[in-house]
Amino acid sequence: MGAQIRWMWRRAKRNPLTIAGLSAVTAMILLSLLAPWVAPYPKDVSAVHPSERFQAPSRAHWFGTDELGRDILSRVIFGTRISLRVGSLVVALALAIGLPLGIVAGTFGGVLDEVLMRITDVFLSFPPLLLAMAISAILGATLVNVMIAIAIAWWPWYARLVRAEAVSIRERAYVEAARAAGASWRRIMWRHILPNSLAPVIVQASMDFGSVILTSASLSFLGLGAQSPTPEWGLMINIGRTFFLTHWWIVTFPGLAILIAVLAFNLTGDGLREILDPKAAPR
Amino acid sequence: MIAYIVRRLLIGLLSLVGASIVAFTLTRIVPSDPAAMWMGPRATPEQIERTQIELGLDQPIPVQYWRYVSGLARGDWGISIVTKRPVLRDLATYLPASIELILFGLLIGFAVGIPLGVFSSAKSGSLLDHGSRLVSIAGVALPSFWLAMLLQLTLAKWANLFPLTGRIDLLMEITNPVRRITGFLLLDALFTGNLSALRDALWHIVLPAVTLAMYPLGLATRMVRTTMLEVLSEDYVRTARASGIRELKVLRKYALRNAIGPVLTIAALTFGYSLVSTFLIESLFTWPGLGRYAAKAIVSVDYPAIMGVTMLVAVTYIGLNLIVDLVQALLDPRVRLS
Q1: I need a labelling partner for A208 at 20 to 30 A (CA). Which of A193, B1, B199, B249 fits?
Q2: Which 3 state secondary structure label does DSSP give B256?
Q3: What residues in B contact A126, CB-CB < 8 Å?
């Protein structure tokens, strides 16, 4: 195991973009854990300072202050927590639905498989952002509803991915050998198909982390999702849109945070693919 | 081929039915009573009950679904709560402005993305290649609404190069009004020979179109690069190169031709995506299109309008995917045989 990890690390080091992505992800995790200690004005998540409204970036407020006089840097740092939470919960929920369905459909085939694939066809005939938007618009504007909505729009992708893996693995020689030795399909599913189909799922999940963060920020920007005073990046931009022409810093920094977060997870996913699944990696 | 077409059409039809079921289900799980929403906050219980019967909400679910679907087929897409007009008419009014914007965005995206993908694959591992990889990832990672604001701030407000908002100058609308023929402003201006309006409209479309272009640009670069790299390692390309055919011709004639399929696919895919992106950016540019209509509908929980927009985008998306699959099957026998 140790040798394997060392080998993976050597491969990762070869690509500077992967290193950049991994460092940014690590930094985000640290920031979110240490937010109350790192943020210069931790109370500014909800506190209001009318006398300090619209201050341009300065030594006291590196990212400036917003329309209620709150320190934007502190809010961006606390926003990391929200984005990471949304990303992990949505990906976990989508995986929890998609992975079992996909693996059962791919292993056993038959009517179940056909029905499941047609259902995913239906879901995939909506652009995911649209479906998430429609669902959260109907459910009502809260961050939890946005997470549910995105997960509902997302699970079919995992179901499809896992099913395709399962279908190709079940034709391999070692599965045939296990069958010949008398193993049941159920055992084969758990012992052979599941572990061997995890690599592409991990790659996809880490990329999706970024997409989910972008999607939830987009929904918050539309007024669905998080509500004031939550320091959610998309919401901060939505509120800032009224003021940004005269106070550029209000939208610039939260947007930069979204961009960096999405880039970081995409680069990490790209790098993981090179490491875990070298054949599928773009050269 | 016939079997493939029939199968593909059936899947398309199934997706349409599924989409309508999803849309119908969503309208049924509205937490607040649709009839109460319809009548507004000051309705009496009797009024709400009457509306429930009027809207058919007292019928069994399958009957309601059948009414909903046959309504869709007849062109009855419900009445918008906000505009109090038929949703389908609203959609028809606002769609052309969005399509114009999206096509412009796709044009920019592909015009930059395809050559970028080709050259970065030809010079794999070079600085240009690394740069284009970053562009392709960034294109997909950029929050479009944020990019829109940055463009407005820098190029419109500070540099004063482009108009901040709108589809055409207000003054121009008075002095050189464009007669509405197709609803596509650029086309109408061109047809009626209204060149000053055409120039002004082109000026206005640049910033929103560039915003929308980033996503197709990123995807096209990546897709073309990957496909080209695959093709360039094929034996016939090596043979062509060995026979002394010039590199540019190899790229164009042997390799790029194989990239047409993937490009078509992402053209359809990104059209659907851009349609949704307009929800995010049209309000910022006060662009009188589908996206602004949708964003307003979302904020005011105008669910017939929301469902109308959702169905329209889904139908467009399903239709485009169908067309792309059929065209690909026509071009490439491998697709229809698999």
Answers
A1: A193
A2: helix
A3: 19, 22, 310, 313-314, 317
| Cα–Cα distance measured from residue B154 to residue B165, given in angstroms and rounded to the nearest whole number | 13
What would the pLDDT profile of A178-235 be if each residue is shown by its tens digit? Answer: 888 888 888 888 888 888 888 889 999 999 999 999 999 999 999 998 898 999 999 9
Question: What SS3 class is residue B40?
Answer: coil
Q: Is the Cβ–Cβ distance between A260 and A23 less than 8 Å?
A: no
Sequence length of chain A is 283
Q: Is the pLDDT of residue A116 over 80?
A: yes
| A105–chain B Cβ distance below 8 A for any pair | no
d(CA B71, CA A122): 21
Q: Do B145 and A218 touch (CB under 8 A)?
A: yes
Domains and CATH numbers, chain B: 1-82+303-338 (no CATH), 95-299 (1.10.3720.10)
Q: Give tens-digit pLDDT for B103-154.
A: 999 999 999 999 999 888 888 778 888 888 888 888 889 999 999 999 999 9
Contacting residues of A for B268, CB less than 8 Å apart: none
The pLDDT, as a whole number, for residue A245 is 93
- Best of A17, A130, A253 to substitute, by most chain B Cβ atoms within 10 angstroms, is A130
